[in-house]
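The instructor's notes for this session suggest beginning with a concrete chain rather than abstract definitions. Hand out the sequence below and ask the class to guess, before any prediction is shown, which regions might be ordered.
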Amino acid sequence: MRVFWLVALCASTLAACSSGSTVGTTAPPAVVLTGTNVNPDGVAYPSPAGGYGHNARVGGTPGSVIQNFKFYGYPNGDMSQGLQTISLADYYDPCSKRYALLRISVAAVWCVPCNEETAALVADEATLANERVVVIQALGDGPTMGTGATSMDLTTWVTKYKPTFTEMLDPNLVNLGSFFDASAIPWNCDIDPRTMEILQAATGWSGDLNSDLAGPLSDATPTKPGYPIAVTCN
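After discussion, reveal the predicted structure:
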């Protein structure tokens, strides 16, 4: 079990919000957060010999494998079951049965580009599904810059945009804050679900999802992954 703050996250690519400071100092009460370390097929999450990291792929050099972070949120945007534990292991797909690409998006309620990107993600959900791109979004801040998102903030966000992708809390960026400058949100990170390798990561919102995803999709499939596949795929 791990201790986390109950909050939320999101991410994106070129027009960025600037807070002028790091993510805030006000933290919600700590809660015990448990989650899975295996994927839906029972395959253990990757544990690289060199440890987890923060680097994206550069040319022929593989990116780091991202840690199996865990969050509270609404899987598939469904609030009817209340807040659920969400693990990155839920999206680990070594045989690419379900996904070609995982996009982690980090946002804040106060951030205008984050709101614009979220609206675009919702509008393009059918296209993303056809390309087998799965999006999970985390809220770091609520309406006030530097104040961690709460469960109420997340509920309001999901009610506003009505996404069918997973929405999560990462208050004060407890999980993902070490990956990027919190003053430059949104942040987007594209992951190869076969190995959980970081293919690309950037702050800001470009305004064009197709161009943002073209490179990572090309890297993720059908090319050889940056790390060996952990299971035998038929």
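Then share the key points. Residues 6-16+48-141+149-160+172-201+212-227 form a domain with the Glutaredoxin fold (CATH 3.40.30.10). Confidence is low (pLDDT under 50) at residues 1-14, 19-30.
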